[in-house]
Amino acid sequence: INDLSVSQVGQNFTFVLTDIESKQRFGFCRLSSGAHSCYCILSYLPWFEVFYKLLNILADYTIKGQESQWRELLESLHTLPIPDPGVPVHLSVHSYFTVPDTRELPSIPENRNLTEYFVAVDVNNMLHLYASMLYERRILICCSKLSTLTACVHGSAAMMYPMYWQHVYIPVLPQHLIDYCCAPMPYLIGVHSSLMEKVRGMALDDVVVLNVDTNTLETPFDDLQSLPNDVVSSLKNRLKKVSTTTGDGVARAFLKTQAALFGCYRNALQIQPGEPITFSEEVFVTHRSSAMRQFLQNAIQLQLFKQFIDGRLDLLNAGEGFSDVFEDEINMGEYAGSDKNYHQWLFTVKKGGGAIFNTVRTKANPAMKTVYKFPEFFGACILQGDGNVRCSIGIKGPNVCQENIPHTGTPPPPACTIDTRQEASMASCCLCQILTLTSA
Question: Per the database entry, which stretches of residues form a coiled coil (predicted)?
Answer without folding.
Answer: none
